[in-house]
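Lay summary

Proteins are chains of building blocks that fold into shapes. Our project writes down both the chain and a compact code for its shape. Here are two examples, one after the other.
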Amino acid sequence: MLRAARHQKSTVLVLLFAAWVLSPFVGLVYAHLSSKQWLPSPRVLLYVLTLVVVFTCPGVYAAVAFGHTTLKMGFVFLMLPFACWLFIGLVVCIAWLVSRKPSRQGEEAERN
């Protein structure tokens, strides 16, 4: 990110940019800390998402910063964290919906 922003003179803008780029990683840490009470299946989905984000994002950032792609740097550094946040939100929503549904065994026990 610093290589991509080497021509930027505003320190505040670079710091805001850094916070935005790092925010999905912080969000994943928070999701992992909050996932202790989740059911196993959404937790596995969160683990897979974490692996994808941790290995894909730095690779994409490096490819853009070192000129291995024709994409605009600003576009990638703004949209990739946004896409990560969308996927994190999707996983958290799935976990919330799955955890709200009562299990079949619980319904049967309530009927008896």
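And here is the second example, written the same way.
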Amino acid sequence: MSLQFKDSERSLSAALRSVRDSIQGEYITLGQLLELVGEQGLLLFVMLLMVPFLLPVSIPGVSTLFSTVVIFVGLGVVLNRIPWFPVRLLESKITTASLLPALDKGDALMQRIDRIIQPRFLALSQSAASNRLHGVMLIVAGVLLLFPLGFVPFSNTFPGLAVLLLAAGIAQRDGIFIVLGYAMIVVTIVYFSVLALAATAVGENLINLGAIQALIN
């Protein structure tokens, strides 16, 4: 099945509220959440999954789960096909008690996006080649979100924001959002590189300190 990127028929905030109002029960599976959004709303689905990483709410253990979805959707964009999701992934459960507060707070965020997003710089989103490139960058952002650095400030926020901007830009054909998404990927890579260098420097200092203490003893 071909994956089409048409102008959205409803605002992002309205879509989020529709999903939020349809959630019932103690748990919801990822597959059920996808059904509420609909196959033609895969990019919106990805955006909704990024909300917990951008706001002061926490859904324990979802970083790996949600980033895996981003990677599969990115592959779908690259191949211009509705992506295949592993059954085990779709059956993953999320507690509604942790998801609903994230969606409630995400409504204000989506309303802000709705006020400024619009089709522009269409050359960045109209061709198949450009969309394939955007799909690759979605995959890159998803991989960055996989890094087990949740305890480090902004380690999930930066790649989550990159995914949100890219997905919104592709879905709404807004070239500015797409460019901002690319910029956030660069920011994330630079940030992770700085963290890696800092960790390496600390490790070397500890090794040197240990060697000095061994000599003294």
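What can we say about the second shape? The beta strands are 27-29, 93-95.
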